Predict the structure.
Amino acid sequence: MGGGALRRGAAYGASEDRTDSMSGPVTDAGVDVVAASATPQASMVEITESRSGHVGSFTVRRALPRRDRRTVGPWCFVDHMGPAAISEDRGLDVAPHPHIGLQTVTWLLEGEAVHRDSLGTEQRIVPGELNLMTAGHGVAHSEEGTGRYRGLLQGAQLWIAQPSTTRDGPPAFEHHAGLETCDLGAGQATVLIGELGGVTSPARRDTDHLGVDLALRPGTSTVALRTDYEHALVVLAGAIRVEGKVVEPGHLAYLGTAREELLLEANASARALLLGGIPFDEPVLMWWNYVARAREEIEQAHAEWMAASNRFGQVDSSLPRIEVAPPPWTH
Ligand code: MN
């Protein structure tokens, strides 16, 4: 369960890769700092393994950030959650927690959940729909079961680092159903954010980036890309071959920049997220659920969260708010 217990340094020492055991959204109390160094590289296929993380009662496969790959465009966090069985009284159960300086993207493949935030939003989400929350200066939210679904839950939650022009601005929330798709030959792309194949998503964008869901059939699909973007592929189901390398769930394939098109081969049905964007040129500092530029900003935000200040407001949730110890550099 999400739980409100103060969990101190859960990741300390327990992880084989301490420099990578940063935050999670929520109970996986991160104690390490992630300083992003966005070093875009030319066209390539570099496969990294996701690591295991915990979100509420779920085990997730965290594809970003990794030690050697902090960001892809402004995308700075990618969790693949499930598939896992949920029921009417046991769902995602991610209790209220804060964010600053980022947008959360929620996209489900199976099941349903409800988003509640300190703006007063209560939004059910099902597969094919997009939840996009902008934290800006501060917001709090929960992700919970709907109380009426029994079956599998599977999806992705991602973070987009906000640029300095908006990261201290007001929070906001958008829900988009009925997103448009474009044909890829042997598959279909749903454009969640940005533009692909003449289709433009209505979702808010503070930087120049792209997020699409790929549903592939057996055969070869072709995706036209922007050469000034860097891209990455995260396979959620099945297997996809990219330039002779097979990418499967639990991995991220970094594809570099300077690509005009991408050929994706599948022998059976496959599902993936294609992420891209202009390489993010601001130094990103991440700890727990905060994306900032300097430690002092994170210390201040966390002190305000722990003091239940108005900065993060109230979430109308039956789950207790999540509290964790202050950043490790302060004690
Ligand atoms: Mn969150």
